[in-house]
Design a protein that fits this description.
The protein is mainly α. The protein has three domains: about 130 residues, Orthogonal Bundle (Fumarase C, Chain B, domain 1); about 250 residues, Up-down Bundle (Fumarase C, Chain A, domain 2); about 55 residues, Ribonucleotide Reductase Protein R1, domain 1 (Orthogonal Bundle), CATH 1.10.40. The chain is built from 18 helices and eight strands. A two-stranded antiparallel ribbon has the order 1-2. A hairpin with a 2-residue loop joins strand 3 and strand 4. Helix 2 crosses helix 6. The longest helix is centred in the middle third of the chain and has 37 residues. It is elongated.
């Protein structure tokens, strides 16, 4: 294999001649062969956008030679267009703070810029990964900034998926607003609700979780860029920060702004934690809803079987005809993973020390992975599960008719203790509350019709 020589402060190494990454990236691949997982596309794009904004800012303040700067910007545009993706080879579990990935980006952009200038890769005296591509920057301010930008980019498709899922549940609620059924509390029979009310509650819960996430993403608008190594802005032009962040905001379309306190921005990842916590809170709602759907569809002969989930695949390799609630089961597993990702993020967020939190790579990977699996699966769950749910109205009616908790509605007429006796007798004799009341002559048929009218059952005004 043809190679080229590169030098860094630790010595000299042979680099594959065709590689756009350089010596520091090579060392990282040798030092951190952890997962085989590389940076997700949003993170690569976020980092390259930062490098583009930095190059533009450094040219504007007169520090970066225009020829070099324009070559770096052109290299950035090529990566953003989808080229050289295979050159970002550093594992997501890497050196603290993300120095390895920052240098991976710097080296790829420098070597492509060299090619665009008609120079050989590795000719870093002309375009240097550190002196030119990384001018006015540190891993310590660019990596947290890339974290914020990448998460913002990743969240937007998730918001659309959540809006669609909430809408699908609302539609189910409207379609089944007329279907009365037994309510259940403590997994025991309770006073009636409608199927529509249950589904509308699911839609509302998802909608509110999404609203909260949208609100929390605003915490990511303040970025650390310009703080360089410790927050002081060392080695950056005084005007660089405002220009670079303004350019980054223009490139991304997000209202990015400088952090109020650069030192906090390097030390603390509270802003990221608020979003990660929001993802966990969403996941908890999704778990609850998925489990409700599995319970309501349980059976078909020995469970509740009030709803029917669309069959999407055979459910057993041994039991013919069995169909399982696989879409809801998968949603559970996805949401469990999101909760786990938040736990990892939380541990990383609290691990900051003095002027820097070096655990940012773990935060970035876990947040982006959580968002990715939600954004990938929720549209499938919406289409293959929620939109195909049907309701067994007859089963709902049968359960409601025998529900002893209907005696609750008798209490204003005959008193709590007498109503409890009715409920107990109805349950013991496997009869309806209505039958027992009529038999005992406690209320007339007309009075019972009023007590058990839909208006009274649902407390409709």
């Amino acid at each position: 294999m043809a190679t080229r020589k590169e030098i860094d402060p630790l010595g000299e190494r042979e680099i594959p001649i065709d590689a756009y990454f350089g010596i520091q990236t090579l060392r990282a691949t040798e030092n951190f062969p952890v997962s085989g997982i590389k940076a997700p596309i949003q993170f690569v794009n976020a980092y390259v956008l930062i490098k583009k904004a930095a190059a533009i800012a450094n040219m504007q303040v007169g520090w970066l030679d225009k020829t070099v700067g324009e070559a770096v910007v052109a290299a950035c545009d090529e990566v953003l267009a989808g080229r050289f993706r295979d050159q970002f080879v550093v594992d997501v579990f890497q050196a603290g703070a993300g120095t390895s990935f920052n240098m991976n980006v710097n080296e790829v952009l420098a070597n492509r810029a060299l090619e665009l200038l008609g120079k050989a890769k590795g000719g870093y005296k002309v375009v240097s990964p550190n002196d030119h591509v990384n001018m006015g920057q540190s891993t310590n301010d660019t990596y947290p900034t890339a974290l914020h930008v990448a998460v913002l980019m990743a969240l937007q498709p998730l918001f659309l998926a959540l809006d669609d899922l909430a809408g699908a549940f609302r539609e189910l609620g409207e379609k089944n607003a007329h279907v009365l059924k037994s309510g259940r509390t403590h997994l025991q029979d309770a006073v009636p609700v409608t199927v529509g009310q249950e589904f509308s509650a699911y839609g509302s819960a998802i909608e509110h979780a999404c609203v909260e996430l949208r609100k929390r993403q605003e915490n990511l608008y303040a970025v650390a860029l310009g703080g360089t190594a410790t927050g002081t802005g060392a080695n950056a032009h005084p005007d660089y920060k405002l220009i670079a962040i303004g350019e980054l905001a223009r490139l991304t379309g997000f209202p990015l702004k400088p952090a109020e306190n650069n030192f906090e921005a390097l030390q603390s990842h509270r802003a990221a934690q608020t979003v990660s916590s929001g993802l966990k809170e969403l996941a908890l709602e999704l778990i609850r809803i998925a489990n409700d759907l599995r319970l309501l569809a349980s059976g078909p002969t020995t469970g509740l079987n009030e709803i029917v989930l669309p069959p999407v695949q055979p459910g057993s390799s041994i039991m013919p005809g069995k169909v399982n609630p696989v879409m809801a089961e998968c949603l559970d597993m996805v949401a469990f993973q999101v909760v786990g990702c938040d736990a990892a993020v939380g541990l990383a967020v609290q691990a900051g020390q003095l002027e820097l939190n070096v655990m940012t790579p773990a935060i970035a990977y876990n947040m982006l992975f959580a968002i990715q699996i939600l954004a990938n699966y929720l549209p499938v769950f919406t289409e293959k599960c929620v939109r195909g749910i049907t309701v067994d109205e007859r089963r709902c009616e049968q359960y409601l008719e025998k529900n002893p908790s209907l005696a609750t509605l008798l209490a204003p007429k005959i008193g709590y203790l007498e109503a409890a006796k009715i409920a107990k007798q109805a349950q013991a004799e496997n009869r309806s509350v209505r039958e027992v009341v009529l038999e005992r002559g406690l209320l007339s048929r007309d009075e019972l019709e009023k007590v058990f009218s839909r208006k009274n059952l649902l407390n409709e005004q």
